[in-house]
Amino acid sequence: MNYPEVRKQGILVYRALPEPQILLLQRSKTQEWAPPQGQAERGERNMEIAFLETEIETGLNPGDIELLRGFRTEFRYKPIKHYVLMSTGETFKLNEGFVAWRRVVYFLGRLRNPEKEVKLSAKYSGFKWLGFEEAIETAIFDDYKDLYTKAKDFLKLS
């Protein structure tokens, strides 16, 4: 069967401190930690939606973030039907059935002011800044591990 595809875009935001750190948001429903991302509507361009969703979810506007040319990565996944909360072990259903593949495009952006305040949207319960190695080690999904590794390599961090 040929399923439709939902396009999502986001920006992996990092701040250039002595040890660069990436911004991860905690989804209220699943407790999953991930960079900001959002679904594209018909006719929206990848970069437009990436900036828009990052602003909606974090309060960081396009002027706060310098997009790094040459970094663009994407992955495709099939949503899972059940999710286990990491904190409690509770299992709950995300959806009744598989309806569409997800294609996620990420760009890499440097936060111009490393002290800029993050203001979360209601769909998130928290945020944290992690070094690249810690983010790679703690990522639940391989796609995120690959994203963080590619960004680290792009920035030539050892």
Can you characterise this structure?
This protein has 158 residues and is of the alpha+beta class. It contains three helices and nine strands, in the order ββββαβββββαα. The radius of gyration is 15 Å and the shape is globular. The termini are far apart.
Explain briefly what this protein structure is.
This protein has 158 residues and is an alpha+beta fold. Helix content is 21%, strand content 39%. The chain has helices at residues 46-58, 132-138, 142-154; strands spanning 5-15, 21-27, 33-34, 37-39, 65-77, 82-84, 91-93, 101-111, 124-131.
How is the topology of this model organized?
Elements: E1 5-15, E2 21-27, E3 33-34, E4 37-39, H1 46-58, E5 65-77, E6 82-84, E7 91-93, E8 101-111, E9 124-131, H2 132-138, H3 142-154
Parallel strand pairs: 1-8
Antiparallel strand pairs: 1-2, 1-4, 2-3, 2-9, 5-8, 6-7
Helix pairs in contact: 2-3
Helicity level: 10-25%
Q: What is the residue-averaged pLDDT?
A: 85
Q: What is the count of DSSP helices, taking H or I runs of 4+ residues? A: 3
How many strands appear in the DSSP assignment?
A: 9
What are the low-pLDDT stretches, counting only 5+ consecutive residues below 50? Answer: 82-87
What gap, in angstroms, lies between the N and C termini? 44 Å
Strand pairing plus helix content: what structural class? alpha+beta
Describe the main β-sheet briefly: 7 strands, mixed
Shape: globular
| Helix-strand sequence | EEEEHEEEEEHH
Which strand-content bin applies to the residues? Answer: 35-45%
Rg is 15 Å
